[in-house]
Write a structure and sequence with these properties.
Layout lengths: L15 E3 L2 E10 L5 E8 L8 H6 L8 E3 L7 H9 L3 E3 L14 H4 L3 H11 L2 H5 L5 H18 L1
Parallel strand pairs: 4-5
Antiparallel strand pairs: 1-2, 2-3
Length: 153
Amino acid sequence: MPMGPKKTAPSGQAIGKSRGGHTTKIHLVCEKSGKPVHFHLSGGNIHDCTMAEPLLDGVHTEDTDRIVGDKGYDSDAIRCKVEDLGAKAVIPFKVNRKSPGRLKKKIYRKRHRVENAFCGLKRFRSVATRYEKLALHYAGVVAMACVILWLKN
């Protein structure tokens, strides 16, 4: 029996193919209190480091002198970009790094506010399951959820 063409994710729609199926990542920037400021979408198979540049382009460092990120954003290029913005990077070092530095754990503990923002976004069923086919429509749903999170507090 002949097989039809293999179904793939549409290109340019922030859908990536992984072992779990088609997935989308939300890369989020939050302010000090944990409210979402801006976000970008990418396919689930895209590494976090590749999305750091557009995220950092929207960051205003007048409000803060430190930028906190998770281990996925550990690279020399990202650390240099953060320093160019006039801030200090508080990002844990990967295990395979040849010369790891020290991490300010007291400041890094506050990263849970970003995780709480993701929790707040995922409470919205349409954000958690991505019913929308087009990335533009899904970005609109995520933006509405972010506005609601801002209005709640």
